[in-house]
Automatic annotation (TrEMBL):
<keyword id="KW-0813">Transport</keyword>
<feature type="region of interest" description="Disordered">
    <location>
        <begin position="302"/>
        <end position="349"/>
    </location>
</feature>
<dbReference type="InterPro" id="IPR027417">
    <property type="entry name" value="P-loop_NTPase"/>
</dbReference>
<dbReference type="InterPro" id="IPR003593">
    <property type="entry name" value="AAA+_ATPase"/>
</dbReference>
<dbReference type="InterPro" id="IPR003439">
    <property type="entry name" value="ABC_transporter-like_ATP-bd"/>
</dbReference>
<keyword id="KW-0067">ATP-binding</keyword>
<comment type="similarity">
    <text>Belongs to the ABC transporter superfamily.</text>
</comment>
<protein>
    <submittedName>
        <fullName>ABC transporter ATP-binding protein</fullName>
    </submittedName>
</protein>
<keyword id="KW-0547">Nucleotide-binding</keyword>
<dbReference type="InterPro" id="IPR017871">
    <property type="entry name" value="ABC_transporter-like_CS"/>
</dbReference>
<feature type="domain" description="ABC transporter">
    <location>
        <begin position="8"/>
        <end position="234"/>
    </location>
</feature>
<dbReference type="GO" id="GO:0005524">
    <property type="term" value="F:ATP binding"/>
</dbReference>
<dbReference type="Pfam" id="PF00005">
    <property type="entry name" value="ABC_tran"/>
</dbReference>
<feature type="compositionally biased region" description="Low complexity">
    <location>
        <begin position="325"/>
        <end position="349"/>
    </location>
</feature>
Length: 349
């Protein structure tokens, strides 16, 4: 039997498809009571991880469990975990209600549950319409309704915001938040766009190239944002030295010949430069937003990268220049909720 905890544990999970390391030694824990975002760029290994969690792909090594058990040992899994994965189709000629009744019968819940879940996802008035004529957003809602049929303790949704309009995203946010918080359920949602799920999630697991890059509360990531000053000096190395000699930490040269300084004011930097006799041609205060942080953490998924950004970074090398110190980055794998807090620290190997 499963332990009824509502906990998802991914431990040292890896999947290799031929020469492709889709997921490499991934570890994280998701607890009930909050919504966790599972984020990474296209091809990062999100869907593969979720498929392993749901027993649809066999891991090369490591484990993924729900309520302490692999999916195959959950007994009646639809009562424990509901899921929506990419590219799930519907019979186009079937009405929404009939689609749900087919699934309800398969998992042993009464027909009336079909109408209940249609009401929950706001599709009550479309119950008799054929799924083939649904918009993308309506199909997302119908897929969610299907996942909810068994009243599961754990919800796993792959890119659930795809196709939703702003109103739909707001609705999904309110729905998932109350599902997780008020009913103490576990919700894991993947996305390749942080800003699409930022309003939705409390915890975040960020992966890139199959490896964990950040793992912890979103609030912590948000707090770790700090402004930095980008200085354009006549002599960047002389300015770096002058700042360091004056006890300024968080100084790093940028690839375009400027110097990024975190945690100091424009005045402080200007005074030090003036005293050291270094000409400064410009200073710019910059505030990192979450999206940029996400980009920095996941850069290098593809060689080349975006114009104006640092080049490919194959391995995790700590935070980007001028951005937060390493204590905000968590090293896995935690083996339980208590241990989770102790893992703030270095990079994931
Ligand atoms: N069945 C498969 N056979 C071979 N390679 C696969 C298979 N499934 C996934 N991959 C590869 O594994 C890597 C991770 O793919 P995955 O679909 O898990 O990424 P993702 O993070 O979900 O991306 P997206 O944001 O585009 O949905 C990719 O390089 C992909 O090509
Ligand atoms: Mg995917």
């Amino acid at each position: 039997m499963h332990d009824g905890s509502g906990r998802i544990v991914v431990q040292n999970l890896s999947k290799q498809f031929g020469a492709v390391n889709a997921v490499q030694n991934l570890s994280f824990t998701v607890e009930p009571g909050s919504v966790t975002g599972f984020l990474g760029p296209n091809g990062a290994g999100k869907t593969t991880t979720l498929r392993m969690l749901l027993g649809l792909v066999t891991p090369t090594s490591g484990m993924a469990t729900i309520n302490g058990r692999p999916h195959s040992q959950l007994g009646n899994p639809a009562r424990v975990v509901g899921s929506v994965l990419e590219n799930e189709g519907f019979h186009p000629g079937r009405t929404a209600r009939n689609h749900l009744r087919v699934y309800a019968a398969a998992i042993g819940v009464p027909d009336r549950r079909a109408d209940e879940v249609l009401g929950l996802v706001g599709l009550g008035s479309a119950a008799d319409r054929k799924a083939g004529g649904f918009s993308l957003g309506m199909r997302q809602r119908l897929a969610l309704a299907t996942a909810l049929l068994g009243d599961p303790q754990v919800l796993v949704l792959d890119e659930p915001t795809n196709g939703l309009d702003p109103e739909g995203i707001l609705w999904l946010r309110n729905f998932l938040r109350s599902y997780a918080r008020e009913q103490r359920r576990t919700v894991l949602v993947s996305s390749h766009l942080l800003n699409e799920v930022e309003q939705l999630i409390d915890q975040v697991v960020i992966i890139s190239q199959g490896v964990t890059r950040y793992y912890g509360p979103l609030e912590q990531l948000r707090k770790s944002q700090q402004s930095r000053v980008l200085v354009q000096p006549a002599d960047p190395s002389a300015l770096v030295k002058a700042l360091q000699d004056n006890g300024i930490t968080g100084v790093s040269p940028t690839p375009d010949g400027r110097v990024a300084v975190a945690g100091s004011s424009v005045q402080q930097i200007g005074d030090i430069a003036a005293k050291a006799g270094i000409a400064v041609y410009g200073m710019q205060e910059e505030h990192a937003d979450l999206e940029r942080m996400f980009f920095q953490l996941t850069q290098g998924q593809y060689t080349g990268g975006a114009p104006g950004y640092p080049p490919h970074q194959a391995q995790y090398q700590g935070p980007p220049p001028g951005y937060p110190p390493q204590q905000h980055y968590q090293q896995g794998p935690p083996s339980g909720p208590q241990q989770q807090q102790q893992y703030w620290g270095g990079p994931q190997q």
